[in-house]
Amino acid sequence: MECFTNKHNQKVNITATHINYYFVCHRKLWLFSNGINMEHTSDIVYEGKLLHENSYEQRPQNRQEMMLSATYNNIELFGRVDFYDSKNKIIHEIKKSDKVETAHQWQVKYYIWLFQLSGIQDVKGIIEYPKLRKTETVELSGKDITELQQCVTEIGKIIENPECPPVIHSKICKSCSYYEFCYVGE
Length: 186
Ligand code: SF4
Fold this sequence. Notes:
By secondary structure, the protein is α+β, with helices and mostly antiparallel strands. Helices cover 38% and strands 22% of the residues.
């Protein structure tokens, strides 16, 4: 079984966080994969955890958090679904964000793909945005699978590159936990 190795010679398993960061910023993905993690100091993440805990209390019992793993091209892939409603085959993902993001959709598509790779078909996803009082349904197409396959290959290249990708100078940087790290001295 293959897995990728970062600059510090540590093995890195691909998770949904890598997929999410790939679609947000390649620098963020590289920093995270190299063990530079600012998330624990971030109020935004703390707020997200609270949101999850409060939402958990209202869940019916047949919905449970689920760990997933599957293999693609001899690469091990992992994921942890917020809630999986096994009766209706629906993944529920809760996002604290006040806007709908492409990276969230890809994260859920990745989960559906892991189910498929494990032999479980016809799974759908629902992303819940409590702040927006909005839900979004996510499905996985054949084209999406091809994109996820390419994505895993590209993520591997980014992890194994000893050079950190450049700062992206995007408006999303202001809400990123690496903001100070990236812009100190500028
Ligand atoms: S602050 Fe911007 S450039 Fe730095 S990791 Fe975050 S999104 Fe990427």
